[in-house]
Amino acid sequence: MPSAQLEKFGSDQQPIRRSRGQALLLAVAVILLNAVGNLSLTWGLRHVEETMGLNPVGYIRAMVNPFVAGGIGLLILWLLTRMALMSWADLTFVLPVTSIGYVLVAFLGHFILHEAVSFQHWVGTFFIVIGAMLVGATTHQSDRQSEEVAE
After folding, report:
1. Residue 75: enclosing H or E segment and its boundaries?
2. Contact 122/106 with Cβ under 8 angstroms?
């Protein structure tokens, strides 16, 4: 099937176009929801008296911790927004750009959870930032299709 036939259509049968700004805004939401959701989940699990193992009862008990429950809720929202973003933009755009979340997680882990982050980890984090900037600055297949439809 040609890619033009895979376009999404609105109620008036006009193709729905998502601007680069809309995709980037949704990418920011995906990044923040993932980082804050994982931070909340980790914080909550570190403050649960029972260690997690094979017994599912421990996990159910942990879910009553407000940070664990909040983390689960944020990660559900993360999954839904990521699904929307993947329907709006190319996978080759979405995954590198949202990888900037690893940078945010390194900062949150270091400054909020007081985790030790090595020099090599920070160098790797820097390369992730550079890679995400390079990918974000390129034209993507979905951008070209939008331009063709507009003509």
Report:
1. helix 66-88
2. yes
Query: If you ran DSSP here, which 8-state letter would residue 77 be given?
Result: H
Give the whole-angstrom CA distance, residue 123 versus residue 134.
17
pLDDT tens by residue, 39-91:
999 999 999 887 778 888 888 889 999 999 999 999 999 999 999 999 988 88
Looking at residue 147, its pLDDT comes to: 52
d(CA 104, CA 110): 10
Domain ranges of the chain: 19-150
CA 149 to chain centroid: 28
- DSSP, collapsed to helix, strand or coil, labels residue 111 as helix
Phi, psi values for residue 116, rounded to 5°: -80, 125
Q: Is the dihedral of CA 105, 106, 111, 113 positive or negative?
A: positive
Question: pLDDT, tens digit, for every residue of 98-131?
Answer: 988 988 999 999 999 999 999 999 999 999 888 8
Stated pTM of the model: 0.75
CA angle 41, 47, 53 (to 5 degrees): 75
